[in-house]
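@channel sequence for tomorrow's demo:
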Amino acid sequence: MPYSGLAAFIASLEKAGELVRINTYTNPLLEITEITDRVTKSGGKALLFENNGTGFPLLINTYASDNRMAMALRKHDLAEVSEEMSNLLARLTSTNSSFRDKIRSVPGFLKLSGYFPVTTGRKGICQTVIHKNPDLDILPVLKCWPHDGGRFITLPMVHTIHPVTRKTNIGMYRMQILDKNLTAMHWQLHKTGAAHFDAWKKTGRLMPVSVALGGDPIYAYAATAPLPENLNEYILAGFLRRKKVKLVKCITNELYVPYDADIIIEGFVDPSEEPVSEGPFGDHTGFYSLSDLYPAFHVTCITHSANAVYPATVVGIPPMEDAWLTKATEKIFLPPLKLIIQPEIEDLHMPDAGVAHNLAIVKINKSFPGQGKKVISSLSGAGQMMFTKYLIVVSGEIDIRDYRKLFTHICGNTDLRFDFLFTSGPLDVLDHSSETFAVGGKLGIDASEKLKNEKYSSWIVNPGEKAEGEGLILNQIFKMVGEEKNINRIDDLHLIIVGADVEKSKGIASGIRMTVMNCESDNFSGLIVIVDHTVDVTDLFTVAWQVLANTDPVRDIDIVDGRILVIDGTIKAFREDGFPRRWPNVVCSSQETIEKIDIKWNSLGIGPFIKSPSLKNSSLCRPGDGHVITN
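structure tokens (generated this afternoon):
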């Protein structure tokens, strides 16, 4: 059965021992984020901040465990959702033979099953209290990180409608508070909300927009799901819940919103109005997304239920709460991915270090030569997969979530000359490594097990065993970096990680690359990764996150003699020739905020003291204007 508002979900969380109520006053400006960051990264519970200076309790860290994510979907576990999706698609494929018929039948099948949302003429629970003179200051809106441009609504379900087709969309686009009845609307270049906005521009009319907060937690997941553009998000919510979503008409515009939402913010965007400056914002990449121009959203009305709860989330250096939403997407959308795009796909995984769009691992059931490359080509343009920077395809008996074994598998099943497919294409607008906004280099790696008639020679001679050679290379690199602590050699992985001070010695990264290319007499085969000297080279998660975020594969990877792969994962802001775009800083709490929470911790009732993750990660912050690194 559905949850009727967040209060019902909170009751379930509390019964399951998955919630902590915090009655000590906690400031939505920076303090709630610092507490949540500690709890999320330590695997803690959902948090309900009941004393935040407003009349609305604030719920956060809601989805950040496998159990809570399953509870939000009203399932025993996420595998149950995947099984339900597979059963649905099996019924479709049993009655339709052609690809076109399969696609066309999906909305019809869902409608016949009773999953389309329904509307009611009555007022909703979300309209129990109506503020026709709206003031956003009544809500406990967070300022998450010290260099954020202001306070941001971080878990909004933004409702829009196309002026011609009348197709609706629910997207999750952050909203920066600019005034008591004005926000910026951060719908990015590739989002459906932006497409609707462009269509409204042509009409010369105001664009209606309504934002729902809370309600059944299934709504927030559906708003983040990678659905086809014309498939209503509430159909997915209805299918997952096994009950149609009830919608109610807004008070001041034509849009319909969930009957049982906690809070509704109604208004409009004027397409003829000049855009407003939005940001910076500490984003899910772990870096600040920089300020840019976005449409202004004018609030005309705020409504809410009698016992409304304000939902929020915090993003930053991974893993954060959004990692569990990504896990759910892996499970739920694997069956349709197999049916519609690639039937040979067995598993899909987007590691936390890749922040959803920087790295995807795909496992296939391989049956013919070149199949791995075929899958890379097909997935590279499939929906939101088009933003993936690194795409790796494997096959055989390999657990793609066991990273050590996966790395060895990749090294043993790739030929650097034939299996590394470099290209360029669209990137997520938050990617900062490319020299051109939203476009940059990509790499597909065919690490599928090779068949007898495939041309192949492993670039690592004995993967899983101690690396041979490397003495000359290491000696030369050591002379350049100067400190032994800045080199981590992992023999059985044939991996060398180097920390280089690119600020002090601007050409050191390119110098190391050149040194490796010139060491022909060293018979080392393996991977050499260069990161900034501020990165702990023994922390493989942080190394992976930094490399995936800071690289353009076409620009930053060298293949040496078919046996050595070099990746430059350093900050490019200190490059000798400069960098054409602003380079963002890493997201961390300030020392002042950390100390405040240290003092307050015992009064929060959360449990044993947890050190701030920012104490470790602050070493990654570099000099500059707060959110931007300057050369």
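heads up for whoever presents: The domain at 471-575 is CATH 3.40.1670.10 (UbiD C-terminal domain-like).
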